[in-house]
Specification:
Blueprint (H helix, E strand, L loop, with lengths): L1 H41 L4 E2 L4 H7 L8 E9 L4 E8 L2 H10 L8 E2 L5 H7 L9 E6 L7 E7 L7 E8 L2
Antiparallel strand pairs: 1-2, 2-3, 3-7, 4-5, 5-6, 6-7
């Protein structure tokens, strides 16, 4: 009787334990694979050129026409998707860009608003000697929120850094 119960218990443990163990190993490998891919692609940094119209629409980053030195980088995972964008524009272009977000130049506060994590991913370094202004434009999900930092060293040609994040 005890031998039969032991055999039944062993079979039940194997029927539950083996698939559960497989799931744990598989999940761990999948997670590591995602991290490896993120590290691989973040190592390439920003790509020169304009993000596609679809990307600009999804992340609500309306880069003004005639902007120069445009570069971007996109990350996607199950938790959040981000578009990192930088561009040089004109005084008028910055005003137009902020207007598309419902903001004005008066909404820009002194300082860098882009988080350290995002700066590390893009390798953006913001020199404390430079006059930085920025703002955080929060929106309810699923609409993206933007962290914007502007280099105002040359007021006629500011450089704009944007991190637009959305949760799927």
């Amino acid at each position: 009787m005890i031998r039969r119960r032991s055999l039944t218990l062993l079979i039940i443990v194997l029927l539950i334990g083996v698939p559960a163990g497989y799931l744990l190993v598989s999940a761990s490998q999948s997670r590591d694979s995602g991290r490896d891919k993120e590290n691989k692609y973040s190592a390439t940094g920003l790509s020169a050129g304009w993000p596609s119209k679809v990307q600009r629409r999804i992340y609500e980053v309306d880069i003004p026409p005639k902007s120069s030195f445009v570069a971007y980088y996109e990350t996607n995972n199950w938790k959040a998707s981000r578009l990192y964008t930088q561009f040089r524009t004109t005084h008028k272009g910055l005003t137009k860009f902020l207007h598309t977000l419902g903001k004005t130049r008066a909404d820009l506060d002194d300082g860098v608003t882009i988080k350290k994590r995002d700066r590390d991913i893009t390798r953006w370094s913001f020199d404390p000697a430079v006059h930085w202004t920025g703002l955080r434009h929060k929106q309810d999900d699923p609409r993206p929120s933007q962290d914007i930092t502007v280099d105002r060293t040359d007021p006629q040609h500011p450089i704009v850094y944007v991190v637009s994040a959305t949760t799927p």
